[in-house]
Design goal:
With 154 residues, the protein is an alpha+beta fold. The protein has 2 domains: 7-92, Winged helix-like DNA-binding domain superfamily/Winged helix DNA-binding domain (Arc Repressor Mutant, subunit A, Orthogonal Bundle), CATH 1.10.10; 102-153, Ferric-uptake regulator, C-terminal dimerisarion domain (Dna Ligase, domain 1), CATH 3.30.1490. The protein is 48% helix and 15% strand. It has 6 helices and 5 strands, in the order ααααββββαβα. A 3-stranded mixed sheet has the order 4-3-5, with no helix packed on it. Helix 2 crosses helix 4 (65-78) and helix 3 crosses helix 4 (65-78). The longest helix is centred in the N-terminal third of the chain and has 19 residues, at 7-25. The protein is globular. 23% of the residues are buried. The model has no long low-confidence stretch (mean pLDDT 89).
Length: 154
């Protein structure tokens, strides 16, 4: 991920999508939920709930952990963020509002995370179901290594 990437576009797109989804579902994108979503989309690095607290406090919001976790739970349910289990952190969803298998590539050098294309994860799940005779209902895939920028720099 380039360091010169314009995150303003990512933030604006995420906000527009979140507003539309809230309207469709009759939900509210409260100021704290909006700010948490903005903070998550400020870059493409996963961010932990406790990392959000100081910025929320600086912005005048209640920075108690339950407030942050309620906002994160809402954004997860809305489908605009994902939780990366291995890092206990959150990242914006590249395919918001759609139910899809989730997976991430996490760069060990720069920390950027990229959402894996759902079509590949669906094919993988189908192949595993056929080979193992199981029915996969949910799961998360996390791959790590060096992103293309860090590989080039190495």
């Amino acid at each position: 991920m380039s360091q010169h990437h314009d995150h303003g576009h990512c933030i604006a797109s995420a906000m527009d999508t979140a507003k539309k989804l809230c309207e469709q579902q009759g939900a509210r994108l409260t100021p704290v939920r909006r700010r948490v979503l903005e903070l998550i989309w400020q870059n493409h690095k996963p961010i932990g709930a406790y990392e959000l607290l100081p910025q929320l406090a600086a912005d005048g919001f209640n920075s108690a952990p339950p407030t942050v976790y309620r906002a994160l739970d809402f954004l997860l349910e809305l489908g605009v963020v994902h939780r990366i289990s291995s890092l206990n952190a959150f990242i914006g969803c590249d395919q918001p509002g759609l139910s899809h298998p989730t997976g991430f590539f996490i760069c060990k050098e720069c920390g950027n995370a990229t959402e894996l294309p759902a079509k590949h994860l669906t094919k993988l799940a189908q192949a595993l179901e056929a080979e193992l005779g199981v029915s996969i209902e949910s799961g998360s895939h996390e791959l790590s290594g060096l992103c293309s920028s860090c590989r080039t720099a190495a």
